[in-house]
Amino acid sequence: MSGRSKHFRIGNEQIDLGETKEIKLLVAKNYDYSNAYMPVKVIRGMKDGPRLFVCAALHGDEVNGVEIIKRLLKNKRVKKLSGTLIVVPIVNVFGFNSMNRYLPDRRDLNRCFPGSKNGSLTARLAYLFYKEILSNSTHGIDLHTGSRHRTNLPQIRACLKDQRTNHLAHQFGVPVILDADLIEGSLRKVAYKKKIPMIVFEGGESLRYDEITIRSGLSGILSVMQSLGMIGEEAKKSKFIKSIVANRSYWERAPHSGILILKKKLGSVVNPNEILGIISDPLGNDNIEVRAKEKGVIIGHTQLPLVNKGDALFHVATFDTTKSVYKVIENFDDKFDYEER
Ligand SMILES: [Zn+2]
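Above: the input record for the complex with zinc ion. Below: its predicted structure, written as tokens.
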């Protein structure tokens, strides 16, 4: 694996042991001929070791990860690093600047990997990331949020049948790990094919900063880095969140169009037939209950009170037993709700 070699290059830059470099990878020209860059920062410790990439805003409007990376770079433990940290706070620079999930050609970057040198704009951007970042890494963490008007409980999505990915997922310390299928064209799928363990962190909502998501994302990355031997232990040990693995999840959809009031929040454990929300008309008549099909924990929900019949309202992860879920969620709330910044 290239992780052990002495010479390390990204773009036209060589980064030697003990060096930190900020690199602007040219993606394309904008309409006005100005340059669109993917910003990258590489920190190489004095000792070689794992090469971990942490990236955000692959979907351009999913901004929580940008703040997570900013705080990661400021963290004292990262100053004494073994191995290499490669951060890419904005992968989809076009989407970021237009507050949009997609690129101007309306493609989803996370369905276009590994991309191609001569393809569409999105394919070219995918290829640049694939060649310069993924191929130069031994491990990866990709930071996401819920899509527009949806919010997610901080969670990890990973392919757990790969032992090393499984390890990273459990080290992150969020309440729920979804053992998620590998979707064709996703960054996770190409990482899996290249045998690079990679996890996706999901939390919060697009175009919003969510403090609990930001704190738990930062804490998770540091915990993964510690488990890889890249940083030392934290000075004041905090409670570790033992995750629960969900093999399956389902969406509870609107049984009727109307105006929705949520009756459950993220992290709520629900039983079959329990009321999740109520839809009514503007005068409060004709109340229609939205009920849970199966037991599980709410890992995502809509933020919009206006719903059409068939809209996805609640994302529920299911478990063999919900017994320990209560405790895990309680520990998580304690750790990130009341901890000082
Ligand atoms: Zn996303």
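Notes for the reader.
The mean pLDDT is 94.
Helices lie at 64-74, 76-79, 93-97, 121-132, 163-172, 187-193, 211-227, 325-337.
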